[in-house]
């Protein structure tokens, strides 16, 4: 029986502080991880999209996991994104991440998942192979507009039978798809957690039955995310709706506005405004922010009560 309670709460997907020369700043990363832990998150995720995981070498991803795990210890769960091209590479990377201290893996789609229809057997075999490494696995429904794949309900039902699967992060950003994924997961494996990954659809996704959340938004506004999640979870919907309307959603619309790829730079800019990190640098070819984006972010953070 899988422990669904382990995933009830907010897991913050972390940005990756970098030096002006675009190298991971592990000192700032540790400070940032401790800052998030102090805000009551149940977990942190590194090497995912928010953390520029696809832009890092294997050695850098391992170093990121080791630094964060050393900082937070067993206080919070440390999940690492698993971004690979094929099964053998994924197993090699998963093993290295496990040995560095990762407590779980967020499973990004691989190129073989692209195209329709996607045979569920292909997905199951990939998860089974990575599962042999011995870490809990989090499936990932990510809208294709952000470079991901959305598993059909029959694939989710098959995947739910993979022993190490502990959760599904649902980031389709579509209410009907979200509900279909939720229902397929609940029917096949009620002990597998449904995690909201919908940064600009958070409140609604909580109301629709998420057990927890794994969000880049929480990498900047962890406390506010917890407030809204807890209010929805406890049935205080009017309070959650007010917090969402007045504070959460205006910031989400800036952080994850077009172009969405700039969300990494926006989150880092916000962390610098809060004094958590010293540099705002994203690894090329990603771009930094212009003055208008910085001004919009500062205004949204003030409205959210962060500044």
UniProtKB/TrEMBL annotation:
<keyword id="KW-0456">Lyase</keyword>
<comment type="similarity">
    <text>Belongs to the DapA family.</text>
</comment>
<dbReference type="Pfam" id="PF00701">
    <property type="entry name" value="DHDPS"/>
</dbReference>
<dbReference type="GO" id="GO:0008840">
    <property type="term" value="F:4-hydroxy-tetrahydrodipicolinate synthase activity"/>
</dbReference>
<dbReference type="InterPro" id="IPR002220">
    <property type="entry name" value="DapA-like"/>
</dbReference>
<dbReference type="GO" id="GO:0047448">
    <property type="term" value="F:5-dehydro-4-deoxyglucarate dehydratase activity"/>
</dbReference>
<dbReference type="GO" id="GO:0008747">
    <property type="term" value="F:N-acetylneuraminate lyase activity"/>
</dbReference>
<dbReference type="InterPro" id="IPR013785">
    <property type="entry name" value="Aldolase_TIM"/>
</dbReference>
<protein>
    <submittedName>
        <fullName>Dihydrodipicolinate synthase family protein</fullName>
        <ecNumber>4.1.3.3</ecNumber>
        <ecNumber>4.2.1.41</ecNumber>
        <ecNumber>4.3.3.7</ecNumber>
    </submittedName>
</protein>
